Amino acid sequence: MAQPVNAKVDVTELMGNEINVYLKTGNNSFVARVDPRSRYTIDSDVQVVFSMDNIHVFDKDSEQAIR
Questions:
Q1: pTM for this prediction
Q2: DSSP states of 25-41 as a string?
Q3: Helix (H) or strand (E) holding 56
Q4: CB atoms within 10 A of CB 58
Q5: Partners of residue 24 on adjacent β-strands
Q6: How far is 40 from 61, CA to CA, in rounded Å?
Q7: Closest CA relative to residue 48, chosen from 27, 30, 64, 66
Q8: Exposed, middle or buried by CB within 10 Å (0-12, 13-18, 19+), for 21?
Q9: How does pLDDT run along the chain (67 residues), one tens digit per residue?
């Protein structure tokens, strides 16, 4: 079951057909690819839900894919 995650927008990066949104929550950070019509602003508080079918997780030290 999907659980919402509260995060703060750190950086937004327009990539043409999508926006990369860099998010922080506690000591964790992650990147979300979103629709280019989305309106994320730096330092705003957002709530996201992970699609586990599309998630990629990397080891912080080795930078190798875990999943």
A1: 0.77
A2: ETTEEEEEEE-TT----
A3: none
A4: 11
A5: 8, 29
A6: 29
A7: 30
A8: buried
A9: 677 899 999 999 999 999 999 999 999 999 999 999 999 999 999 999 887 787 788 888 998 988 6
